[in-house]
Amino acid sequence: MAIGFTRAFQHEDWVDNVDRVQAAGDNGFNQRFHGIESDLDTIGGVVDQISRTLDSLSATPAPLELRESITPIVTQVGAIGWDQQPGFAQKLTGQTSATGLIGVQLPHGARILRFRAIGRNSGAGALRLELVRLSITNPAASPELIARVIGAADPYEQIPLAAAAFQRVDNDRFKYYINALLNGAGANDTVTIVGLQVVYATS
Q1: Facing residues of 90 across strands?
Q2: Paired residues of 76 in beta bridges
Q3: CB of 123 within 8 A of CB of 186?
Q4: How far, in Å, CA of 200 to CA of 162, rounded?
Q5: Which 3 state secondary structure label does DSSP give 57?
Q6: Residue 99 and residue 79: Cα distance in Å, rounded?
Q7: CA distance 198 to 74
Q8: What are phi and psi of 36, to 5 degrees?
Q9: Strand, coil or helix: 164
Q10: Residue 86, Cβ neighbours under 10 Å: how many?
Q11: Is the model more confident about 135 or about 5?
Q12: Which superkingdom does the taxonomy of this entry point to (predicted)?
């Protein structure tokens, strides 16, 4: 958008001993001063327009909300793992439990908003999917829980909010992963992890 000013007032010199000093009329003081006044008002409007334009350039953009989709590739942890299938993981047939973890890569400095998990749990087994962070220098430290999904339906889909204290992604100090924990399922139950997402903001 172009910003500019074109002067409208044009002064015509008075001539000594010819022009009469007067207030009214086309050549009077009132008309000329109103012309100057109009130009000053126009200049004021241009200054306001410049100010608004500069303010818009310096305004902080609204945070952009993004989603990181995670393929459930589960690394076995413990005696019984998950049965890995193309694009999803499921409980092994005949087993009543499963443990594993899923690596998560998030951009440094992002702010985690929500954690989403989708799948099936046809029985009464306790399925927990936990987004956590752990110190990269101290593996003996306790994982810090960012958000937890309880998969207790067939199908289940939950999108819990992230814990405020652990929202900011700090890849200098922490690694991030999802615990996939199942206990007490029936041997013939169907339990799957189909979709995982981390919803985060860029600022």
Answers
A1: 83, 192
A2: 100
A3: yes
A4: 10
A5: helix
A6: 8
A7: 16
A8: -65, -40
A9: helix
A10: 5
A11: 135
A12: Bacteria
DSSP for 112-159 reads EEEEEEEEEE-SS-EEEEEEEEEESS-TTSPPEEEEEEE--SSSEEE-
Peptide bond into 139 cis (omega under 30): no
- Contact criterion met (CB below 8 Å) for 73 and 196: no
Q: Are strands 126-135 and 144-150 parallel, antiparallel or unpaired?
A: antiparallel
The C-alpha atoms of residue 131 and residue 177 are separated, in whole angstroms, by 6
Pull the structure tokens for residue 149: 């999904």
- The amino acid present at 29, given as its one-letter code, is F
Q: In which band, very low, low, confident or very high, does the pLDDT at 30 lie, cut at 50, 70 and 90?
A: low
* DSSP codes of every residue in 40-53: HHHHHHHHHHHHHH
DSSP assigned state of 197:
E
Non-local CB neighbours of 177 within 8 Å, separated by 6+ positions: 101, 102, 103, 104, 131, 132, 134
Query: Per-residue pLDDT for 1 more than 70?
Result: no
Q: Using CA atoms, how far apart are residues 160 and 131, in angstroms rounded to an integer?
A: 11
Three-state SS for 75-89 is EECCCCCCEEECCEE
Spatial distance between the Cα atoms of 1 and 125, rounded to a whole number of angstroms: 63
Closest by CA to 70, choosing from 197, 155, 201, is: 197
**Predicted TM-score (pTM) above 0.85:** no
Q: Are 150 and 158 in contact (CB under 8 A)?
A: yes
pLDDT at 23 over 70: no
